[in-house]
Specification:
Blueprint lengths: L6 H4 L13 H25 L4 E4 L2 E9 L27 E3 L3 H4 L8 E14 L12 E2 L5 E5 L6 E10 L4 E4 L4 E5 L5 E2 L1 E3 L2 E3 L6 E4 H7 L16 H4 L1 E10 L10 E8 L6 E7 L5 E23 L1 H28 L4 H8 L11 E5 L5 E5 L5
Parallel strand pairs: 3-6, 9-15, 14-17
Antiparallel strand pairs: 1-17, 2-7, 4-5, 4-6, 4-17, 7-8, 7-13, 9-10, 11-12, 14-15, 16-17, 18-19
Helix pairs in contact: 2-6, 6-7
Length: about 375
């Protein structure tokens, strides 16, 4: 028996066929899908979600400076060398010293970070040996060690000067040129402009006290340390993230820029840093082991600018849903409705071979096949 190939069947071509099904159920459903999809693309994606904007995360720089108060507080409960009445300190008090900003600030000159001292252990150390020996070590001189708090560090003020730059839009601003807010513990955006401090006021630098900065992060120096409940944060130190979030997408005007501060304590973390001061020679030194408030500034946000290609991509990506809507209605018509056999036979047609007269077989709803021949003339 010979083997023959039906070349028409082997190289068949599937094409799109439009069948108008006069069924109000399918028509209303398909129209509802189209209206919903167009509303999603235009109203939600393009307008509400601002799908016409190309967004980027800005970069920038942060400069800080510290200033001691003109008048220090006295009779502090955590100071063992001061008289105070009333409430007692829940932890062991230490002697207090009043330092200015030059002494309290260490390390200095760091980008996007800031550190001020809350406690320091000072000791004179000497090494009565030759450093060519691997066993030569510094030891504390007897009676030289001191463990002190820096008094009233919460009243020190910090100036935060920051700039932002978005390369794609070419936007560049200094904090003084913008308005901004501080996010408090309740999630509210607040501005401050009183008693020599200001936050987010256009035309003024951002200046706040250390106490205000801590309170916005929900931190008190006199609460228990996150790693040792027997001592305070004032004793151990703390590390804070300060996020500066820039945005011009919170309204529909991309020329309106703002920034928002938010303060977050890093969990289970304390901060200490050693400082060495060489005295007479390399064999004598003053060791200051500082504990304090370490602030790390992180600049982030969303800066948007109109971009036609971004808008086009938003529209085109949503148009794929139109094909999904058509597919859903098609499947409903040929698989679920009572007239599914008729609708299926109308939708799908297989022609005869080109060498034979064209025929079409249509199945009615009763399951009967009706054969039409020479359909070119129909």
């Amino acid at each position: 028996m010979g083997f023959s190939i039906d070349w028409d069947d082997l190289f068949q071509y599937s094409t799109v066929k439009i069948v108008r099904i006069r069924d109000r159920r399918l028509g209303i459903l398909h129209l509802s899908f189209l209206v919903g999809i167009i509303a999603y693309i235009v109203v939600y994606s393009a307008i509400i979600k601002k799908g016409y904007l190309f967004t980027e995360v800005p970069i920038g720089s942060v400069r800080t400076s510290l200033k001691s108060p003109n008048t220090f507080a006295t009779n502090l409960t955590y100071c063992a060398n001061q008289q105070h009445s009333g409430s007692t300190y829940p932890f062991t008090p230490l002697d207090c010293n009043y330092w200015d900003e030059q002494l309290a600030l260490f390390p200095v000159g760091q980008d996007s970070t800031f550190t001020c001292t809350t406690r320091v252990r000072l000791s004179n150390q000497s090494a009565n040996c030759d450093f060519t020996s691997p066993t030569c070590k510094f030891i504390d001189e007897p009676g030289s060690a001191q463990n002190i708090y820096i008094a009233d560090i919460e009243s020190f003020t910090i100036l935060i000067d920051h700039t932002m730059y978005a390369s794609s839009s070419g936007s560049q601003f200094n904090a003084v040129d913008l308005h901004g807010y501080m996010l408090n513990q309740d999630g509210d955006q607040v501005q401050i402009d009183a008693n020599g401090t200001s936050i987010g006021v256009s035309g003024k630098p951002d200046i706040m006290t250390i106490g205000q900065l801590l309170s916005f992060g929900g931190v008190s120096l006199d609460q228990a340390s996150p790693v040792d409940s027997n001592v305070s944060i004032r004793y151990d130190g703390v590390v804070l993230f300060v996020f500066i979030t820039y945005s011009n997408t919170y309204t529909y005007s991309t020329s309106d820029f703002r920034y928002v501060y938010s303060v977050q304590q890093i969990a289970n973390t304390i901060y200490d840093v050693p400082e060495i001061v060489i005295l007479k020679d390399i064999n004598t030194r003053l060791l200051l082991k500082r504990h304090g408030i370490r602030v790390i500034f992180i600049q982030t946000g969303t800066i948007g600018s109109f971009h036609f290609q971004t808008l086009l991509l938003t529209l085109v990506s949503g148009l794929g849903l139109l094909a999904v809507a058509t597919t859903v209605v098609d499947q409903l018509a040929i698989r679920l409705l009572p007239q599914r056999k008729s609708y299926s036979s109308l939708k799908f047609q297989v022609t005869e071979s080109m060498s034979n007269p064209m025929k079409k077989r249509i199945t009615t709803d009763e399951g009967e096949d009706v054969l039409y021949t020479r359909i070119e003339g129909l």
